[in-house]
Every structure is written in structure tokens, then in C-alpha cells.
Amino acid sequence: MELLRKKKLLRLCLFCVLCPLIFENPRIVHAKGEEDFWIGKLMIKSGGKFLAAAPGDDADNPGLGQDGRAEKVELQGLYSYASCLIDADNDRVLFERHGSEPLPMASTTKIMTLIVILEHASMDEIVTVSKNAAAQPDVQLNIRSGEQYRLGDLVYSLMLESHNDVAVALAEHVGGSVEGFCALMNAKAAALGLSDTCFETPNGLDAENHHTSAIELSKIASYAIRNPEFIKITNTTSYQFNELTTNRSFSVTNKNRFLYMMDGAIGIKTGFTGKAGYCFVGALKRGEHTLIATMLACGWPPNKNYKWSDTKKLMEYGLEHFRRVPFKERAVLLVNGKETASGEFDIEKERITIPVTGGTADFVAAQPKGEIPAPLLLADWEQPSIEVSYLEQLDAPVAKGEVVGSVTYYIDSVEYASCFIRTVEEVPEIDFWYCLRYVITKWNSGVQ
Fold this sequence. Notes:
CATH superfamily of the largest domain: DD-peptidase/beta-lactamase superfamily
CATH topology of the largest domain: Beta-lactamase
Largest sheet: 8 strands, mixed
Distance between the termini: 95 Å
CATH class of the largest domain: Alpha Beta
CATH architecture of the largest domain: 3-Layer(aba) Sandwich
Helix content: 25-40%
Radius of gyration: 33 Å
Shape: elongated
Structural class: alpha+beta
Number of helices: 11
């Protein structure tokens, strides 16, 4: 008995000594070795958070947050004041810093310049150079007033070496004037749903109301690279051509270093002015990723290489942390506020049955009328969800195609897409004439 009492006393003493150590050292997760392994089994709570956990629990994994999801990886060390990374397959923003702030964008303007040219002119048209175009400041091809060029030649000068005189010559030819061409540029921006973008020049030289944002410039580039002709021009290494009346020859070389920096690089355009600083928009296609990275105000001389460093960081961030997955595969499904297993409710096939009061039928069928978002790039720390909401009771009459609910797709509580739930049939109201027809039908069928 005395021996047993001493053992109990020893255990009590050990407990009294070890408890303060554990509480005073919340970083302890588990102790190594068989003798003190039991310490790791103590779950010590402080303010609702586990400070120590058994080996294998989430708290033993520094990459997991409190909800079991991976902790967000923050992108550090960028030089640019404004930057953005988007998934070009759907224009979803994967990263941004000051991404919505309107800023001057220098010669990245010429992305929209080329879009408008490709959509409003033919490559075989002849461009005659005006005095205004020939007088534009550097960077210049040094075209001369009265000279004539094939439009399909000048677009290489525009994009490979960013010649300002060529931009104005093309703008005057396509739009009738610089102002007319800028009106076409702004109309295209509006058609793309851009609200923070305004063009006053076709070449990107500083002007009072000439600006865009990193996010919107990324979306312009995303639209541009869907045109094979745009890709062909901006990815050309070098190009030679001649003036048509004097046969004066020219050779232009692509100044975009990003084309040679990363596998799958597509381009697109550099830029610099004293007001805008160094700017760049780059695109990359590799496997399941098609990414657009944009930098505005990315340093001033002599720091012209900052934009290449930032572009590579942004692209590597997207490649490393985002994987393309079906939306439903990761989503939490809520049906009228209740979490539901995806197997119990198939959004693509499910017909919702809603009770109807006072109708010729007791129920009406309804279905979501819209496509489920295509698989998209998601990071491990992002949580998609689907909220299905619909009326649980209807009063007749109910029309076919009537909106009775909605399906909303979220990523971390931010709405990504939505569609309506509509009835697929009508249910008339029971009225006098319906009752009369019912009685007559029953009478004629011999039913008393």
C-alpha cells in the first residue's frame, strides 16, 4: 500500500510540474520520445483555439488554417505599384495590388490599338502618312509625310518596336482622325465592360485623361490573345518590309524579353513614359494555365528590369498555387440555407418540385437555366460554394418560364456567377371555367 501511495504521489508531482510548462509554452505540439509522448495527447484550449495537439492533428501542420484549409500564400517583393494576375480563360483575378486604381499605361495602350485595327481594317489596305503622324516624338520608325505603306506591315512596327509615328498613321487611317480612332478604342473598352479605362491617344503618350487599371488592362490583353492574328504579330521575332513608293526598307525587332524568359510565354507589350513609369503586360500558356500578368508604375530609370522580375514572380505564383478543378468538386452546396451533400442534389440534372396552391396541378417542376461554371483555377486556400434558393410554395396561376429562384456560385463569399431557376411548365388557376370544363368532361365520360 505504501508503494502504491508513493507512485500516486509521484504522478501527482509530475503533473503539477508539467502542467505549468505546457500552459506557459503554447508552441509545444508534442514531445519526442516514448517517456513524454503522453504530453502530446493533451488538448489545451485557449480562447477556443487548440494550443497543443496530438501528432497528426491539423494544429501540427503549419500549412493549415483553423478551418482545415491551407493558409493563403501572400505574394511579396513586387516592385510595381499596381499589379494583377488573371486567369485568361475566364478573366478571374487571382492576385491584385492596387489593381483597380486608374493609372497611365504608356505604350501598353497599343494592345487596344491593335485590337481596333484588326477589327476595323484589312491587312492589305494602303496607309498614307500625314504630317501629324510623321511629327510624333520618339520612339519613331521615322516615316515621312506622303509615304505609303501596307497596313499589314505597319502593325509589326507598332507592336515589335512601339513606334509612335506609326500608331498615329494607323489611327488616322482607320478612324479618320486620332480623335475618331480613340472613340473606337473607348467604344471597345465599353463593350468589354471596362469602367476605369479611357483612351486619348493611340500610342500611349501621356495625356490628362488617358488611363486604365491593372485589372482592366489584363482583361484587354485576355481579349486580345484570343485573336490568332494578334498572337502572330506580337510573337514575331523580327520583320522586314518596304515603303511602297520609294522602296525604302525597314527591319523591326521584338523588344519583349519575356518571350524568352519562361516556357509558354506569349508576349505581349512593354511601355514607358515619364508619368507612367515602366509598364508591362505579359501572357503565358502552359498546360492548364493561361495567365495574364500586368504591371503599372513598375519603377523608373534606371530600373527597367523590375518589370521582368515582377512578371516572373506573378507567373510562378499562378503556376505553383492554382490548379484547374471542376467547381462542383470543391464547392459547399447550400439548398435554401441548408448544407446538402452534392450527391443528394445534382444542379445539372435536378428538377425541383414546388407545391402549388389553387392550381390545376398540385406541383410544378423548375430547373436552373444556365451553365455551371467551367473548371477554373483555384488555390488550396480558396473555398467555392453554391447557394440554391427557391420558393417553397407557389400560388396559381404559374407561367412556364417563371423565375422561382436562383443558383449563385461563390468563391470565398465573393459572387462569381449566377443563374435563375425557372418553371418548365405552366399550372393554370382553378377558376369557374376550369370547374365547368371539368364537370362537362366527367359528365361526358359517364362519371357521376
